[in-house]
Each structure stands twice: as C-alpha cells, then as structure tokens.
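Consider a protein example.
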Amino acid sequence: MKEYLNSLLKSDIFSDKDIELINNREDLKPALNYYNKNSIIHLAGEKCNALEIIVKGEALVQSIDEDGNALTINDLTVGEAMSANLLFSSQPFYPMSVFAKTDIVIISFSKRQILTFCQQQSFLESFLRCLADRTATLSGKIRVLKQKSLREQILGYLVAQYKVQNTKKIRLKTTKKALANRFGVRRSSLSRELSKMRDDGIIEFDAKSITILDDTFIKL
C-alpha cells in the first residue's frame, strides 16, 4: 500500500500532508482495485461512487457509437483521476467507457473520505483546480476532434510524433486499430486515408512505421 500511496503524489490533488493523514487515520484508508490489460473498468452509464486515481499502469477513455466505432478521448496514466468531475455531480454517471490499456492498479476514495479531505483548504483548492482543468482539457479535445478531418488528425499526429522522435520515419508505438480508435474511425477508414496520402506523395508506410515524404506541413 505504501508504494501506491506515494504514487498519489504524482496527482494534482494529493500532497505529502494528505498522505500523512491517510497513514494516521484508519477511516481514510483507500481501497485498491486491480484490472488486467484490456479489462473493462467502467462502462458508459455506470454510476460513479468514488474518486479513483491510477497508481500503476494506463487506461483509455473511449466513446463507442452504435456501430461499435471507438473514439479515444483520453489516455490516462499514473497520477491521473478518472472520476473527479463525476463524484459530486447531480448526474454521477460515466459518459464514456474506461478500459485498461495495460495491467493497472487504481486507488479508490469514497465520497465521505473526499469530503473529509476537503476540510483542509489546501486539498479543497487542489481538488477544485483539478476539476476545472479536466473539464477544460476534455472540452478542448472533443472540440478539436470534431472540427478536424481525418487527414488533418493524421497530420497532427505525425507532427507531434516528429517532434518527439526527431525523425521523419515515425515509429508506431501502437497498433493501427488503436490509432484508428484515437481518431474515432474504423481501421479500414484509416488505412484508406493513409493509402490516399501515400498516393499524394505525402507519406510512405508499413506495419510498424510511417515515413514523412512531404515535410511542408511540418514547417507550417
């Protein structure tokens, strides 16, 4: 438990003072939940009953339409809260599904426990700041995804990866299916657009990489 409590310090909510409080009060001891890779953590429509923070592994927040198409809204890593903006809502239901991207451990605090923490001004300020930041971030991501065409999303992804990998040959760190989910399209649609971009002389690609041939858009 100590290892996982220390991971809470990577969140924007908990401080050393809060960890000390947890260690000294039995009623503030959290629950630990373990999930295997690809497991369902929460389904859309499920009620939120606790503040959950990832202390090991990664998760995906996805919106799935009636045809089964998945749009990845967010990737969550250690220190990120999954339900901060839902716990005290009048409609505390997950609007999207959450899946384990890797084997994952989640630490869970009840509403009553969070209310106890909120009696400390420093925690309350951190918690409210987290709520505001999460709302702004998610709203921005959804707005950008809705406004951009698939090609624009692909180009944006390539520019971001080019800056990280510092090479025009972008090594794919995920599957084409996962990449399609990120863009909210079927894998076949992604493959079709990549082929069009290859035909237009913009890229070349194989199963493990995408090579940028026309770097005009990188310099924009």
The two ends are 48 Å apart (CA to CA). The chain has two domains: 2-147, 150-219. The domain at 150-219 is CATH 1.10.10.10 (Arc Repressor Mutant, subunit A). Residues 13 and 126 are 5 Å apart (CA to CA).
